[in-house]
Design a protein that fits this description.
By secondary structure, the protein is α/β, with parallel strands linked by helices. It has three domains: 312 residues, Rossmann fold (3-Layer(aba) Sandwich); 120 residues, 2-Layer Sandwich (Domain 2, N(10)-formyltetrahydrofolate synthetase), CATH 3.30.1510; 83 residues, Formyltetrahydrofolate synthetase, domain 3 (Roll). The strands form six sheets. Strands 1, 2, 3, 4, 5, 6, 14, 15, 16, 17, 18 and 19 form a twelve-stranded mixed β-sheet that branches. The longest helix is centred in the first third of the chain and has 21 residues. It is globular, with a radius of gyration of 23 Å.
């Protein structure tokens, strides 16, 4: 243990205070836990490091360890503790004598300064240094944003310098990005002010975590593959509707140069000194929601058990992890942990947010229908499931028992966990159950759809089998666009759905297990470099906005100590 255990009684401490009072080990000692030579780590201070690409290549001959995927039910606005559970489970596996490591996404500054807060775990299940991980960290997101915007600048420069590729400015699909929630930049006009400022046209900004560069970064296995995939990005069409790629603009090599160091996986630690790879960070409601393939694969070569997460509810993060990341990387999870909270179950059962702290077993019983649908969905992939109830102090034994009783017929174990309050010790039962599932049960993994299924039917399959919808709907223009992608040679690609995380449907207010609804498709985008088709549903935005009172209003610097305050 490297956390100061004197602080174990200080339950009133905030996440940032807990992280600040922890005594982390030097990053060299964390690397030694995974038998990583000191010569292969590149230190970013005392407690962060990147691992050399040569080292990654040198361990490829080793057998893979076991892979555990952590996902969740449809969350409340505060989230259900998926990252916290991932960290708590990793620490618990270490405590029961397993050589374990954790793979997480890097937090985005947008939600950090917006409403959701950071993404380094919580309570006594955190990765540290918490402040640095939640802020600039090792600069990976800055590099990804710069690579994306270099391509944007090169595209507009090409138009300005004579447009030799015959690009139609009305059919440019490549936008710009920044890692901040800024709704005012969703739609903008470029090139105003006269001939010296390029060609006037409409465009906009997405948040960096929605960038195709982020997706490519997290799906590539090597720098060479990263460069090739970035060259395949389709940025526009010509006047005769032929695709124009980044390779034709001849800047994909320079983009790779900007990402050369960022592509090396980041190594940090938990409060209990379990090694943690925190690398890459696409959103799960508007992107594919998984950390980098390079970090996950490396962890599986170094640890006997790798615990990773997929963002938001299982209808988004887990579906994309299994249909996109596993398909692209050749991975198969050995077990799935589905995180639920009593609070969220009561919300799905019809209780208002202000009343979630009051015992209500009937509401829990109704809300369990949401959990059961997620369990059934994971079973569709042929994978075993363990339910982790991330406990709050307001939860009662009767409410937890209600969940266990309602799920009993699905043949899944429901394990109460209090890792937020007690670290790895609070997830020991969960760790034993997950190990039992892996060692004593076989998986029969299968994708939800095959590559040769049409794009329309892939979308419909996700909507009907995962969301429980009756059908999908789209206007003729959108149907024609999907048909054009099919006929243009992209029909084999998987689908990346962009949808609200709060409901199986596209209506965030429709809780529980809704029935009798359709999924309206609003937009389709080709991500040829990443190798998938993005389908936007409902009113999901790829550039979020700030809430009425953003977290930025409470994040500050202590004038006397220089410490960050208000970060959570």
């Amino acid at each position: 243990m490297t956390a100061n255990k004197e602080m174990s009684d200080k339950k009133h401490l905030s996440d940032i205070e807990i992280a600040r009072e922890a005594t982390g080990k030097p990053i060299q000692e964390i690397a030694e836990k995974l038998d990583i030579p000191q010569s292969e780590i590149e230190q970013y201070g005392k407690d962060k490091a990147k691992l050399s690409l040569d080292f990654i290549q040198s361990v490829q001959h080793r057998p893979n360890g076991k892979l555990i995927l952590v996902t969740a039910i449809n969350p409340t606005p505060a989230g259900e503790g998926k990252t916290t559970t991932t960290i708590g489970l990793g620490d618990a596996l270490t405590q029961i004598g397993k050589k374990s490591a954790i793979c997480l996404r890097e937090p985005s500054l947008g939600p950090c300064f917006g409403m959701k807060g950071g993404a380094a775990g919580g309570g006594y299940s955190q990765v540290i240094p918490m402040e640095e991980i939640n802020l600039h960290f090792t600069g990976d997101f800055h590099a990804i944003g710069l690579a994306h915007n270099l391509l944007s600048a090169a595209l507009d420069n090409h138009l300005h310098q004579g447009n030799q590729l015959n690009i139609d400015p009305r059919r440019i699909t490549w936008r710009r990005v920044m890692d901040m929630n800024d709704r005012a930049l969703r739609q903008i006009n470029l090139g105003l002010g006269g001939p010296g400022n390029s060609i006037p046209r409409e465009s906009g900004f997405d948040i960096t975590v929605a960038s195709e560069i982020m997706a490519i970064f997290c799906l590539a296995n090597s720098l060479a593959e990263l460069k090739q995939k970035m060259g395949d990005i389709v940025v526009a069409q010509t006047y005769d509707k032929k695709p124009v790629t980044a390779k034709e603009l001849n800047v994909h090599g320079a983009m790779t140069v900007l990402l050369k160091d960022a592509f090396k996986p980041n190594l940090v630690q938990t409060l209990e000194s379990t090694p943690a790879f925190v690398h890459g960070g696409p959103f799960a409601n508007i992107a594919h929601g998984c950390n980098s393939v390079s970090a996950t694969k490396l962890s599986m070569k170094l640890a006997d058990y790798t615990v990773t997460e997929a963002g938001f509810g299982a209808d988004l993060g887990a579906e994309k992890f299994l249909n996109i990341k596993c398909r692209k990387a050749g991975l198969v999870p050995d077990a799935v942990v589905l995180v639920a909270t009593i609070r969220a179950l009561k919300l799905h059962g019809g209780v208002e947010l202000k009343d979630l702290g009051t015992e209500d077993c009937e509401a829990v019983s109704r809300g369990v229908e949401n959990l059961k649908k997620h369990i059934e969905n994971i079973h569709q992939f042929g994978l075993p499931v363990v339910v982790a109830v991330n406990k709050f102090v307001t939860d009662t034994d009767n409410e937890v028992k209600t969940v266990q009783d309602k799920c009993d017929y699905l043949n899944v174990k429901v394990i109460p966990c209090d890792h937020w309050a007690n670290g790895g010790a609070g997830a020991i039962d969960l760790a034993h159950e997950v190990v039992d599932q892996i060692e004593n049960h076989t998986t029969d993994f299968n994708y939800l759809y095959e590559d040769d299924m049409s794009l329309w039917n892939k979308i419909k399959t996700i909507a009907t089998k995962i969301y429980g919808a009756n059908d999908i709907t789209a206007d003729k223009k959108l149907r024609d666009q999907i048909h054009a992608l099919q006929e243009g040679g992209y029909g084999h690609l998987p689908i990346c759905m962009a949808k609200t995380q709060y409901s199986f449907s596209t209506d965030p207010g429709l809780r529980g297990r809704p029935e009798g609804f359709d999924v309206p498709l609003s937009e389709v985008r080709l991500a040829a470099g990443a190798g998938f088709i993005v389908v936007l549903t409902g009113d999901v935005m790829t550039m979020p906005g700030l809430p009425k009172k953003p977290s930025a209003e409470v994040i500050d610097i202590d004038d006397e100590t220089g410490n960050v305050i208000g970060l959570f």
